[in-house]
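Task card 7
Instruction: Convert sequence to structure tokens.
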Amino acid sequence: MPVSDVRRVRAWAVEHLDEIVDELAVLVDTETPSTDPVLLAAGAAVLTGWVLESWAGSTVTTLGQGPGAVLQVDAPGTRAGTVVLLGHLDTVFEAGAVAARPFSVDDGIARGPGVFDMKAGLVQGVHAVAALDALGVPRPAVRLLVNADEEVGSLGSRDAMLAAARGAAAVLVLEPGGAAGTVKTARKGVGLWTVTATGVAAHAGLDPEAGASAVHALAALTTHLAGLADPAAGTTVNVGVLAGGTRPNVVADRARLELDVRARTPEEAARVGAALAAWTPPDPRVHLAVDGGWNRPPWQAGESSLVALARAVTASLGVAFDPREVGGASDGNLLAATGVPVLDGLGASGGGAHAEHEHVVVGDLPVRIALLAGLIAG
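Output:
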């Protein structure tokens, strides 16, 4: 895409910035917690209405049903190939969060539940395609894929997304960025496990030897797991939940551990997974049930053609290129594992994902829209 066209898109977005912010306000104030199918449907209706209005000749399909349904919108192109825009509609905030913190803009900073992760990215995706078409810039077909269970693992939607993105020339992930020139070129894999221990209850004072403590077993496992972390390799291990027992004078016969592991490479992921599977409790009377696994594999773009293109587009916009590796995973990890070229973090500039200080830099929206448009049009 010529430099002049990239800059024209940015100018178009500046001209339409009030409209873009108004749409972002509506989407943020339409709450979409992962746990509420009624609110998720209302948010999908808002987004679908904008896309059909903005993308001439586009069609909408719903893949699957229930919590794992995926919204697919297809816009025909004027060049060969298909580029996928990937995003999610759900947020981590429960119903009622907007009443306490409705969308607002102060000193150029937009705030509200889900504004950064990732409703601004969805709005940017709609307007990037609209800008290309309004300016007559040739582009391939665009397929927007939006799921509603990303924040809870994408367990119901992943198969539909993988099928819908098969054969795409590129997948551009609308997850948030960070600064005006940020792209995400690597994400760690995420492993999630629940370990349940079953021991033997006994009186802790009268007959402790008759008991086999499930709590003690999982405490030992916690120490073992903590030792598997390797900061130099980028491997983190976190036991976020450790619970069990009934009373202090009873040897605990039940306990539960919940584990989060992040790994930069498949080799590290395999090492930690194998070490967890091979561990046995010090007391053989305690039995373990291990549930879970790798929710999303590690992903690294390396020096791909998409990264090179992003570097060139940001340069044409006069913005410093800012490639980042992050610990959080996205649905881009899943699609990249199939061999489809992926670039992530193309949503908003801002910060505070999943927190009350979540925010978006309004003045960077035109730059981010132009970057996305440049990647779509190539």
